[in-house]
Write a structure and sequence with these properties.
Blueprint lengths: L1 H25 L5 H17 L11 H5 L4 E4 L23 H36 L1 E5 L2 E5 L7 E3 L2 E4 L8 H13 L2 H14 L4 H24 L4 H10 L11 E2 L5 H9 L14 H21 L4 E4 L7 E4 L3 E7 L7 E5 L3 E5 L2 E5 L4 E9 L2 E12 L4 E4 L11 E3 L1 H7 L2 E4 L10 E10 L5 E7 L6 H8 L6 E10 L5 E3 L4 E5 L1
Helix pairs in contact: 1-2, 1-10, 2-7, 4-6, 5-7, 6-7
């Protein structure tokens, strides 16, 4: 989201530079056709330059002056890992991420509105063409319609209204033929799309209007070069001066700014050598790429050089036999530019998200490299998990009940048993897969025994509990539980309860 907004702003900056260079150096000093190429290339460069991979970082002295700092930040507790929420940095007063989200959604909403407008115009053209009477003329496809009074073209389709034509039909067709032959519709579509993309950029609107005017200059020039009398042609333009509803993505015979078109018809052609002014696009493009490279380097280097490692537990412990997730990133480097290693076990993963599997008790040192250099070594303690213990299923926030005197009601309310690692910093997901319940009578004789194949009391076991009397004992043993790795283990201890 943030990257996309930066791309949009860079693209808008490129368009602004293209327009300002045109106004300062090129306006009225190049052939009209060359001006068209300038705008066309400028729009393409404005879209491609922001995605340039070039990066100009700050000087080595600046980057090396900052000592890498490690900050331990907890990740989401997706594996039940308890984390320390204490941070060494203060939380910013402004939620910049939320603010950027709002800006992005507002921008996206307006952009979609513009794109819908373009799609509507395309649908109008298609509908008008389907309903029109069609014929061929000089490589063009004429569509006689009664919806639009003015004549306009879209690629090689020319839409005309017979009722609004008093005379000059051939000259109008010659005008539209130039638009079609020079593919002006491509320029207009590109300009409309770029305007939707940069709806907030005023330079894009004036450049789009200038492109449309250049198209009319070229079409007028093409008509006059066919031998049409200039005075009669200008009179034809004046006869059609009243504008009606126009489609923005089309080329229309009655484009506004007639005075400028008349002046252009009377202006001497620019010297052939002026066409080489188009070569100014080379340094302009280089300048744009240089600016983008500086921005890329700035966005990468604005944040201090910080290696961010996620602490797994309060005591910086990794446990043997389970997967310990850890996030590692180095500000100023992409995730794929970071290499990590561990000297006790294995560490796997990508894009900053890794999993540690410790091999033996002791120290586990994680080495982080960025740009081929070691930027930080972080030490964790590796140890075995304590063996799990069995207990009745406790109420939310309640204590573990592993034996002792208990009422039948409390026993039935528990509904089953669990296995957990007691007094650990983490909650390992052991799952009870079976257990046996036996009754010891007051005469110390073992009575009925019932086994269940899950962690809940079976209907038979519930009946057994309900049938018990005071001071009778119940033994829960043969407890089997599956660990996080899927292996099933037998609990060595039993639970013994005496009925109140």
């Amino acid at each position: 989201m943030q990257t996309f907004l930066i791309y949009v702003l860079l693209s808008a900056g490129c368009v602004s530079v293209v327009w300002l260079v045109y106004k300062a150096l090129l306006e009225n000093r190049m052939p009209v056709k060359t001006i068209r190429y300038y705008f066309l290339i400028g729009m393409v460069v404005s879209m491609l330059a922001p995605v340039s991979p070039l990066v100009i970082r700050p000087s080595v002295a600046e980057t090396e002056s900052a000592t890498p700092v490690v900050e331990n930040i907890p990740i989401a507790n997706t594996t039940g890992i308890k984390t320390d929420n204490t941070r060494t940095q203060t939380t910013p007063a402004i939620d910049w991420k939320k603010s950027i989200s709002w800006v992005f959604y507002i921008y996206l909403t307006v952009m979609i509105f513009f794109i819908i407008g373009i799609i509507k115009e395309l649908i109008v053209i298609l509908t008008c063409y389907k309903k029109a009477t069609k014929e061929k003329w000089g490589g063009l496809r004429l569509a006689w319609n009664d919806r639009f009074k003015e004549s306009f073209s879209f690629f090689r389709l020319v839409f005309m209204n017979k009722e609004s034509l008093s005379e000059g039909q051939d000259n109008i067709l010659l005008h539209e033929q130039v638009h079609a032959a020079q593919y002006h519709s491509i320029d207009r579509l590109l300009a409309q799309l770029l305007t939707a993309f940069q709806w907030f950029n005023p330079f894009m609107y004036v450049m789009r209007n200038e492109i449309q005017l250049v198209h009319e200059y070229l079409a007028d020039e093409g008509v006059l070069n066919r031998g049409v009398d200039k005075v009669r042609y200008q009179q034809l333009l004046l006869d059609h001066i009243i504008e009606s509803k126009r489609i923005a993505i089309t080329s229309t015979f009655k484009h506004s700014l007639i005075k400028k078109r008349f002046l252009m018809m009377s202006t001497k052609k620019a010297a052939p050598a002026t066409r080489y002014r188009l070569l100014l696009l080379a340094p302009v493009t280089a300048l744009l790429l240089l600016g983008v490279a500086f921005v890329n380097g700035q966005t990468v280097s604005e944040t201090p050089k910080v290696v961010t490692a996620v602490a797994l537990t309060k005591a910086n412990v990794v446990y043997i036999g389970i997967e310990n997730p850890v996030n590692i990133s180095v500000a100023g480097y992409k995730a794929n530019e970071i290499a990590v290693a561990i000297d006790n076990g294995t560490i796997t993963g990508e894009n900053g998200e890794y999993v540690i599997k410790a091999a033996k008790p002791g120290k586990a040192v994680i080495t982080v490299k960025a740009g081929g250099k070691v930027v930080k070594e972080t030490t964790f303690n590796a140890k075995y998990l304590a063996p799990p213990v069995a207990s009745l299923t406790p109420p939310a926030g309640g204590l573990l009940i592993k034996g002792g005197r208990i009422s039948k009601e409390a026993l039935l309310k528990a509904g089953g048993i669990i296995c957990t690692v007691e007094n650990a910093d983490i909650d390992i997901p052991f799952k009870v897969v079976s257990f046996t319940m036996s009754v010891i009578t007051n005469d110390h004789v073992q009575g009925l025994t019932v086994t269940t194949a899950n962690d809940r009391f079976s209907p038979e076991q519930i009946k057994l509990i309900q049938s018990m009397t005071k001071d009778q004992r119940i033994i829960i043993d043969d407890i089997a539980a599956a660990g996080p790795d899927g292996r099933v283990m037998k609990m060595p201890a039993s639970m013994v309860f005496t009925i109140l």
